[in-house]
Amino acid sequence: MQISQTPPPVADRDSLADPVAAAEATLRSLPAVSDRWAMFLDIDGTLVDLADSPDGIVVEEGLPARLTRLSGLLGGALALVTGRSLARAEAMFMPARLPIAGLHGAELRGADQPPPPRDYLIAKAGAASFAERTPGVLFEDKGLAFALHYRGLPQAEADVRREMEAALASAGSDFQLQSGKMVAELRPASGDKGTAIAAFLARAPFQGRLPLAIGDDLTDEAMFRSAADRGGRGIRIGPTLEGSAATERLPTPAALRALLAEIVR
Q1: For 118-188, which CATH superfamily applies?
Q2: Which GO terms describe its molecular function (predicted)?
Q3: Which of 176, 169, 172, 116 minimizes the C-alpha distance to 142?
Q4: Residues of 233-243 as b/e, b for ≥16 C-beta within 10 angstroms?
Q5: Among all residues, which ones are annotated catalytic?
Q6: How many helices (H) and strands (E) does the chain have?
Q7: Which of 12, 28, 89, 142 has the fewest Cβ atoms within 10 angstroms?
């Protein structure tokens, strides 16, 4: 991965062999090189801790205000890139008004969204019915996407995947399946988180900056690859970088939140 022309201001460059130290240095360097970077942040498992259900997610008090200040530091070049619907992501971080890509990049604020096709609505109804008759499996309606969460019933994984494969066959080729942490999702096939950050980088105030992508899940790998292809960096939230295109990491969302608070203090 190509590294920014200006190295992070750390006394011991050998510490960057530690991916956690590298991530900390990258983030702490932002105030000094804020005109060079554009930041792209996943939400669930990255900015906020995972919960047993999507509705159980808690946005830490003060986080929207800190993101607003960080966006100002970066000249507005900060965006949320999430699997949640655009409307739900906006509501979570009110009163902050940030650029957002929803549904893994299929929804961008200001872009026209087509009405859901009939076959998709039939597939969604079938998945909702499956969740109703399978205690421990939760159905999440995202509008032009839906998901089955089985965190509460891990042994249902095979049944969930069969159900979602049937939903895909019903919905048609304009949709695709997306796997995540204890979740299977059917979403539009157009775009992913990588194409979402490419779209942001093509317009002001992101244009001409290096992308810094931060995420935790399989869906964020497209974002990490896109950042690397453009000379930027990827920071993964979690215990390991194994199998990831990111080269730096932080252990938990709490560690990321603490660093963001430090930057904008």
Answers
A1: Trehalose-6-phosphate phosphatase related protein; domain 2 (3.30.70.1020)
A2: metal ion binding; trehalose-phosphatase activity
A3: 116
A4: bbbbbbeebee
A5: 42
A6: 8, 11
A7: 12
Cis ω before 95 (30° cut-off from 0): yes
Least confident of 4-8, 16-20, 118-122, 155-159: 4-8
Q: What is the pLDDT of residues 85-135, one digit of tens each?
A: 999 999 999 999 999 999 998 888 655 566 889 999 999 999 999 999 999
Domain residue extents for the chain: 19-106+191-264, 118-188
Domain 19-106+191-264 in CATH 3.40.50.1000: yes
Structure tokens at 263: 């930057």
User: 41: left (phi > 0), else alpha (psi -120 to 50), else beta?
Assistant: beta
Q: Kindly report the pTM of this predicted structure.
A: 0.82
